[in-house]
Amino acid sequence: MRLPVLAAAGALALAGCASSSPTEAPDSMTTDSATADILQTNPLLQEWTGPYGGVPAFDRMALDDLEPAIEAGMAAHLAEIDAIAQNPEPPTFENTIVAMERAGKPIERAFTYYGIWSSNLSSPEFREIQGRLAPRLAEYSSKVTQNAALFDRVRAVYEDRESLGLRDDEVRLVELVYDGFARNGATLEGDAKERYAAIDQRLAELHTRFGNNVLADEEGYVTYITQSQLSGLPASFVQAAAAAAEERGRPGEYAITNTRSSMDPFLTYSDERDLRERVWRTYYDRGDNGGEHDNNALIAEILALRDERVGLLGYDNYASWRLENRMAETPERALDLLMAVWPAAVARVEEEVADMQAVADERGDGVTIEPWDYRYYAEKVRQDRYALDSDEVKQYLQLDNLTDALHYVAGELFGYAFEPVPEGSVPVFHPDVTVYEVTDRESGDHVGLWYLDPFARPGKRSGAWATTYRSHTTFDGLETVLASNNSNFVKGAPGEPVLISLDDAETLFHEFGHALHFLASNVAYPTLDNGVRDYTEFQSQLLERWLLTDPVIERYLVHVETGEPIPDELVQKIRRAATFNQGFATTEYLASSLVDMKLHTMENPGDVDPDAFERQYLAEIGMPSELVMRHRTPHFAHVFSSEGYATGYYGYLWADVLTSDAAEAFAEAPGGFYDAEMADRLVRYLFAPRNAIDPGEAYRLFRGRDADIAPLMRDRGFPVPEGTE
């Protein structure tokens, strides 16, 4: 069922979906005349036209149209739902489950545009609209999931599912739809049902405020420096910082923006320790600055409401409810995995800090390593131990070349070809966006479109993500995929190539893995395109492994000035340093995952002081003082700006266990990472089915067994626990 996904408006950037279909109301649907008029005239609700099965009219986006579009779309969808619920015919798979899959296409189209404003083009005006819509969207969702007559029909089909002659994927669809109702209050009655809906509305408001507060702190805190403060910074970073300052009306200065893509390289290279501390504090204090954008009180209320809501359903805590239908199944299993890795990660941090302190002492710097020193001295150790200069590597990582590398890998593994669409044939929401047609190389058949939006700008949320504007379905005729990758790389000066770090290059491959997961889908129904959270990161993490495969190195990693391929010696340095700084990377991630899980399993979570809890809990588990959580609680948007990753941040590690295990399977294959038989199994079992089969079963079909933790520990250079081989 589509609605629970759509109602989580804060998560649209991760899982947006829209379809091309007529906006006319079906005969069985009754809407008032005002709604009917808006359905016919509002550009954000109109059927997508043009080539490639229709495309979003991003050139017709007007913010004034958004609120009426969402309101009319909700009303139209609720009328469709009511017609399904009141159908006098006995409930069947077709007239109930399939009818629900078919419903709501106008509102999905409106949500595509909503997602663009929310993630790519946010503004104060949009945020006002978003704040008004959030509780109404939650109410709309509740009207579906708590529609008793509709749930009775769904339950009837669910109870008879094994006797209806359905395909396996259709049985799974019925089970997922039923579960979506049962886990979201449909079984409640009376006051409990009303309270559940009220909590949903309030949470929608709080999630929206949380995300907007983080964005406000990202936009509102920019560190400007002068030429005399550039010591240690690479030329490419200096050029980008100058361009960012000029864009903000400060020519002649250099802007360090409050995003990871700007903060991380500054902390890595700047010789100005006081400035490193200022930039570090600005970044890690997002949402924690006091005043109108402080998120601490919101967190306590969110936690209390989530706990109360699942209590109405009979669960002990939010995490137990959330993980019930994930691969982990229980918070205990997720915590067991996190804590299995934690001691080795912390031990490695101690080694890394000792190495960095030795470098600082040898240089006579007179410092004790603090969090704002970690990246800086880690880079010195890297250069000393591996003779590996991150900025030297960066000269071989041009964004345009890496984009071509993505297409090459997709061609070799999936048989896809990527070609830019003719100029002007597909509308875009910003000039930075490039659109490619994706086709099957062998048949020439159209697969979908791929939108690439790579650069940071005001109003765009930080980080990197993938989304779809339309997902693959066949139940009402073939619908092809419109996929998008979005990043926050710092744009260089006009005409200058954009160079990115090795970490950013891995992220580029990671997010493209999500896009390939969308494009490869062969599912029939929209609900089956919704992934299982601790599984969907696996496919994207796995694709990172192709960045340093020989064909990519030889063809695409060439020097920005000379065009010469990256030297073998430098490649070997990168590979030897693959486990370098894994203590830092693993520990900062695990700390965020553990705090996420603990906050959602505690008693009386509404009484929590997030700052105090964060410090106390991390001290209890031995968090090293030289680093902090990757996402501190007050800006942990994954967890508190929506419910998409709430108690789910552990899923990256869960997926990484699968990733390391699957990567060893490719490494052992006769053709290595480009082995044709392995590539076929990869697409057939791990990408194409999406959620049409159980993720655990899909992995066993690919690998022949369950995944083991030992490859993960080897990948990170940690000791392999006994009994895991």
Automatic annotation (TrEMBL):
UniProt-listed SUPFAM superfamilies: Metalloproteases ('zincins'), catalytic domain (SSF55486)
MF (Gene Ontology): carboxypeptidase activity; metal ion binding; metalloendopeptidase activity
Entry's cofactor comment: Binds 1 zinc ion.
Keyword field contains Disulfide bond: no
Region forming the signal peptide: 1-25
Record-linked Pfam families: Peptidase_M3 (PF01432)
Cofactor entry: Zn(2+)
GO cellular component, one term: cytosol
Gene3D superfamilies referenced in this protein's UniProt entry, alphabetically: Collagenase (Catalytic Domain), Neurolysin, domain 3
Superkingdom field: Bacteria
Keywords of the record: Hydrolase, Metal-binding, Metalloprotease, Protease, Signal, Zinc
BP terms from Gene Ontology: proteolysis
All residue ranges annotated as the Peptidase M3A/M3B catalytic domain in the record: 266-714
Entry similarity comment: Belongs to the peptidase M3 family.
Designated name of the protein: Peptidase M3
Lineage, broadest ranks: Bacteria, Pseudomonadati, Rhodothermota, Rhodothermia, Rhodothermales
